[in-house]
Amino acid sequence: MVLTKEYRICMPLTVEEYRIGQLYMIARHSLEQSGDGEGVEVVENRECFDEKHGKGQFTEKRIHLSSRLPYWVQSIIPKIFYVTEKAWNFYPFTNTEYTCSFIPRFNISIETKYEDNNGCSENCLGSTPEQLAERITDHLDIAYDEVSAKHYKEEEDPRFFQSKKTHRGPLVDGWRSNYQPIMCSYKLVHASFEVFGLQTKVEDFIHSCVREVLLLGHRQAFAWIDEWIDMSMADVRVYESSLQQQTNSLLQGQSGRPLGGQTESLPERDAPPVSRRISGGGDAGESLSLGGTAPSSPKEPKSPARKGYFSNWF
Known about the structure:
It comes from Phaedon cochleariae. This is Cytoplasmic phosphatidylinositol transfer protein 1. This protein is of the alpha+beta class. The chain has helices at residues 15-32, 71-74, 129-134, 199-223, 225-228, 233-255, 274-277; strands spanning 3-11, 39-50, 54-64, 82-90, 93-100, 106-115, 136-140, 183-193. The radius of gyration is 19 Å and the shape is globular.
């Protein structure tokens, strides 16, 4: 049985603001987590279309992370290992799928919807009564739920951070009840690892990692607000493109292998067509397009400083 949880993460932002903040956060964090031949490789980025949601963006990424996995996982996988992320983004709806280059029965799917409320929508992703009965709901508090010690930075702690440009924050206990503006990321996560003897252990491990990544990423999106709040969509996509090139260069240069090719792994499954997969949800899988002038940012990462972000998801 697939373990399904719905995570609800509120932030002191609007859905329209987060469209920019999400792109900035993902691009910056991908670069920070790349180094020593491991990190996030962008394979494909193109426009896509869905009959229900219209024009969107498809991205495919490979997350190289062999040495960051727990020992008991490393013992059953090849030395060179990656997870493939395929995302169909129709903001504020996104659908993202993670598959494994070595274990075909490994799958994580995340349906996301963003709404301008404090997490009070009980079925915004349109689950069936049967799905609702099996669903576990987890409300994450970016200020008062603790991230692991290796991820903690006081300057990124919403209990102490205040934006100089928007004057939002610090967030006090119970802030989600009356703070304005406020939005919520609704994420329905299905984790499946159909391997006898390991299924329950791995699916529980996946969800603990997903929770940590969601908590950390949303904290950072808010804590970095002064770096992206003045950006236009063209600005952030140029920033994203620049960091994407740096990330791919780091992976290729330090691993000594060409990117985009198979290395000691089984053939990957083709992703289903968009029309079969989009069901009113989505994950933080935004993508880029080129154009505009690259903004300068004092917080742009100049060198990778790995903190194990992706190892905590997978």
